[in-house]
Input
Amino acid sequence: MNFEKMAKLIQEYSEKYRAKFIDVRIEEVDFVSINIENGKVEELEANQDFGIGVRVLINGWGFSSTTSVENFEKTLKIATKMAKISKSETSVYVGDPISDRVEIKMGNHLRDVDLEDKLQFFLRVNKMLETRKIKTRKTFYHDSIVKKTYLNSEGSFVEMVTPRIMIGISVVARANELMQNYWKYFGGTQGWELAEKIDFQYWSRMVVRKVTELLEAKSPPSGKLPVIMDPELTGVFIHEALGHAAEADSVRSGESILTGMIGKKIGVEELTVVDDPTLPGKFGSYIYDDEGVRGKKVEIIKNGVLVNYLTDRETSAVLGLEPNGHGRAQNSSYVPLVRMSNTYVAPSDWEFDEMLEEIKFGVYMIGDKGGQVDITNGSFMFGAKEGYIVRNGEIKEMIRDVALSGDILQILKSIRAIGNDLKIEFPGFCGKGQWVPVDDGGPHVLTEAIVGGLG
Amino acid sequence: MIDKLIKILENMNVDWEIYFSKSQVTSIKFRKIKEVEIERSTYRIVGGVGVRVIVNSYIGFSYLSGFSWSEEKLENLVKNAYKIAKLSKNYHPGFPVPKAYSTVKGLYDKNIEELTIETLISWGNSLLDVPQNGEASIGFEVREREIINSNGINVRDKGTEFAMHLYLYSKGKGTGSHFEVYRTLPNVEEEILKIKENASWEFELSSNAKKIHGFNGEIIIEPKALASILSVFLPNISARNVYLGKSRFSKIGENVASENFTLIDDPTLEGGVNSYPFDDEGNPGRRKPIVKDGILMSFLADEKYGRLLHIEGGNASRSYNSTPEISTSNVIIPPGDSTPDEGVFIRTVYGEHTANSITGEFSLNIELGYKVQRGEITSFKGNMIVGNVFDMLRNITEVGKDVERVGGFIAPKVATYSKII
Output
């Protein structure tokens, strides 16, 4: 790949077609994927991939992408043509040129460990899940080393290398007519050392114990109840209840219920919420975003007040906000959108036991099953993997997985306690027409939500 | 290029399969905040070739993106697939053999392939010619695929798809949306009117909707919400999940729904959004009744799990850069004879990915619902609907007479018992 030649072409097109802005992303991916079920390999893959995405702003945005390396100029030409056809009032932040080469370092390089050794490693992990009641035991492993090269018409040239790894164990148990499942995921922007540090014996016993207990668990109650969320559930909660509505593209279009709310108190005094792509080794971390802008730590809510939105080049320019490097794309075939990275509720000073004492009748819900939000109407939902009834300050019987629901503008004000035990180690993928890796978390949090149980 | 690859593979003592695909997407995104703007125009080309080889009953896969490859790259591609097969010990019973395909009409239209951007823009403007703020997207795709294997399968086809989507919103007040997908070009002006009508109707209802008190009893589920709820059920009919013990079901013949309920997977539907004459392994697409009059009739399978469970395949779906997965095509619920016009209707829900397909339990947010009493409509939103999909199917009381199309899902309204909180 001749980046110099590409940079020259970008300049040529920029001048010839009077483009306001052109940027190009070239992605080279090297990945390994392993999926083992019931001791058998269901998937094994080791591959390389490649793609180019070109964005041009003239009368509006034009975008074109290809998976074929020799088509760069053709792709640039098409994106330019598309940009002339579009027609919208917009602008982009330009703090360029930036010239940089960054790499997230691996303790133990992912390609220094043989594919066969990785396979044997996860076959052993899969074996640890084998017990009588378990019908299906699955172990998956996915790693990638992504080399992104970013070029733009302002003369920026940024190269970044990001390793990313995700591991999961999951089980399905059956007893008579009842079936249940449980799982645990691990992940980060790290090398093989992440896999080596996991105590798989411990976690295997944990998921097997949980799934077995869940076979006996009751259906959760339904209705508006006090809910203590564990750090993992707090993560998905804040991602849905606040994160999406704070993405500046939906603020710019006026879709988000948080449009025009900067400086307003939308949560309790104790509440501070942060999105931070610079946390070392987390699954949602990055150094530069997909628009060649450095990712910055952003306080979205500080002491209950909405202070910042997450922005990209376009929304920061149009809304007159600071660019904070949150423009992310699934890969070079997609345009960057405003996205979260690692989102968390900052810790406060409550002990878990003190929170329990606050509850006469409520639930303690644990784990993340995903969620979704309707940012315009302002309601959202999020799923928990399991939980317990809390009666008179004491943890009682176990309850099954369930989704909970709330209103953005009410629930952040209904928070009654924020714990002191911060954890951000719950990797996942966030969908917004395209998928990006994220992490989230927080401490234990006590609030009120609608529990969607059958009981 | 493919010929070179075939030659390399034929020189090896293995069973092999080549899957080539190329997809070209042209789409335009419009936005209306007071004025209609063309926010972004996109052209995307995605494609490449994937190779699977079976070495002593073990399968290996590898792929290359792009459309022209050196001899060396092709040789490395095959070597990698071979190495993976030896290493993985991933059992595979064999690739499909040639079979007769039925003709499925209406999957390609030259008029779609030849659409100009100017035409798309005029339609986009017309979609957003509405009083509300909104977003619209309009686009088309041309897809080509080619499957060749060592058992003699050698097939190719080309399909088109045209799609329009409209989303109307007013912050803190309400939303409405509608989308349509077509394989051949419809009367677009007429369709635009229909899309606007549907989205505006939802927007009006949503703007007047409030949370209601809980309710436990008979509800009428509209096709959009039914598609979401049935997505909790559908993983259970995958032959792979059945084989691996991850499905609720282990055999056909079980009573899984009330006797007025039938569910069919039909890739042979003329002009169907997800129709195909052959699946992504080269097996013929077949109309399969999954549930007939309440009884579980069959599972969906690819070649591997079809052979392992001794049932017919034809439900494999993949791209050049992935291996086949079992997938539904067009999911059809045939009409019944009722015309529900009073009661509690659920129009749209969200959050189905948080539901539990193994237990069948779900709790979803209601994006839009409405009550009809003595001809008067009152709408609601922000409540949850909770239930168990297996119980819900067994409790279906009525199946509507008029069917609607939601992409590849074609169904009437269905009445059953559930709980709103």
Chain A touches chain B through 81 residues (CB under 8 Å). The CA atoms of residues 339 and 416 of chain A lie 28 Å apart. Chain A has a mean pLDDT of 96. The two ends of chain A are 61 Å apart (CA to CA).
